[in-house]
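Dear colleague,

As promised, here are the two records you asked about, laid out in our usual form so they can be pasted straight into your sheet.

NAME FIELD: protein one
SEQUENCE, THEN STRUCTURE:
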Amino acid sequence: MIICRLLSQLAVPAFFFISGYFYFTKYHEHNPTTYKSKNRARLKSLVMPYIVWNAIFMIVSFLTDKILLQSTIADFLQENGGIRLFWDCGRDSISKNLLEVEMPKDRCPIDGPLWFMRDLIMLSLVSPLILFLSKYAGKIGLIVMAALMVLNIWFPFTFITSVGFFFFWLGAYFQINDVSIFSPNRRRRTLQHIAAIVVFLVAVMLYGRSETLDYYFYRIFTVVGIFSLFDFALLLVKKLNINPIEGISECSFFIYAAHLGSILMIVKKIVTALSLESYPVVEWILVSVLVVCTLTLAYYIFKKYLPKVLSVLTGGR
């Protein structure tokens, strides 16, 4: 399970990198006019689905509380932080970094996975700063930012995480400075893969000994492992001719946004009834497959019968 957890740590940083990379396509045209047009487009692709999905999760959570606990809407909002449900779910969990400064921990909106979209919305707004840093801070700036991210030294707010800021900036840096994502230097790529494997193995061996060490190695692994992930993806597409599964790739955002909701709870209860506790990996795979299949079916039902609603839910993707 720890192996799956570690590998999954690469997904969101990779999305941030790709988002930063493509946001600054034709960066020389990045001026107040293009800034407005880019962010106006993101009202539909990011802001609208972000608000709608969190509103749906809020309504479902309230109805669940009302049925099980007889809660009123006032009780529900007071207990869960009210409007904060849209960005950090009213949680006050904290952790201390290397400097003993208290930092927000595991802060996310009520639809948890959408913390990525929350960060991306804010990063789009501060894109002029990202452009400036990418042009003038250079590699030294990126190294400093990577160190701050690994050591959990960052501003103590929840709107932009250090992970989001670093990888969005890294993607922007590659685009703006015309750096290839896939290094032509074979020796460099080999060293990069070796470093990723070594950090991965150390993280697995040290898992559970210290929450702080786990955090550091997770972060280091994302930094050294992300380019190995891109190389692996290139291998699948170009060398082995493996492409995303038709019909599933288009509904990936829908699955991503909905997978931690009531569907997951129901599927877990069904799988638990099968008494597979002795086979946790099988149980985990079965839950994952059933959730993906159920949400894929839901996506195509929406696509056929409620296409306009689906367009709002997916931001027109």
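NAME FIELD: protein two
SEQUENCE, THEN STRUCTURE:
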Amino acid sequence: MPAVAAAMLAGAGVEALMALTMASRTGLRHRWSIPWRHPGLLRVFTLSVPMMLGGLAGQAYLIIDRRLASALEPGSISALAFASKLVQLPLGLFVIAITTVLYPLFSEYASRRDHPALGRSIQFGLRLVALITIPASIGLVVLREPIIRLLFQRGEFDARATQLTAVAVLCYGLGMLFIAANQVLVRGFHARQDMTTPVLIGGATFCVNVLCAVLLVRPWGHAGLALANSIGAISGTVLLAAGLGRALPLHYAGLAGSLGRMSLASLAMGGSAYLGHLGAQQVFGGRWNGLLEVGVGIGAGCLVYALILWRLRLPEIQTVLTLVRERIRS
């Protein structure tokens, strides 16, 4: 464990040095003195306080979640942790990249008070994250057991641990689209320098999470805790969308058609991934069986999804391909 902690610390240090080096190349110079009287500093601090409180609520829920899980059968906490890592992988790899690219655009439109353009860009961002997270969630749910066996099942992580983790992935996966949508909607509030509303909504979501966790943990165990997390994400999306819709000309009804086409394509992808996985399971054997099962399943699903999207000619496809290429290069 000390070696892992030291490696994480070293990685953070290298990342900070790289950021400082790249900043200096653009003409930015770091000064060790803090301009306490600068009016911008007070403004930044004022905007940061609500975000700190929101982060505190998130950590508080994590403690409550783990406390409830500690009373369940052994392995429940580990199952939730491993399942959360799997679900966060596509979110961290693609959704964060999309919102990072879109946020400066949101801020530019907000600073110009161009509300129609800001609304259109937020809707475009929602379609982009849906294009990624809908198939990712369905694919992850369909192939959850072979993926978990391939990545984690060794040593103390036995077949029972795989089953526990697979159930948690199923329940977490139901909320993936809404977690991604929340990232875009929150950036819309932040672009308008409204930090308070997302925190208030986060507080309401916290209450929904805790209530659902307490109600569902007894009948469904650790699956109830994962499902409570997804229910909280869904409630957060509803509240954020309603709040932002009052401030901006957002036309959510126009998203229904795009989401419907993406969902149909994703269902076809999920079926293809499952059939590809079963076919590989029958054909291949030996030590590489797990890798081939997952690889063939993912490959078949991605191929079908890409072909359907190509036929649909959705405008978001080219944007996503550009972001993926940039992400791979970085």
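A couple of things worth noting about protein two: The mean pLDDT is 87. The radius of gyration is 22 Å.

Best,
R.
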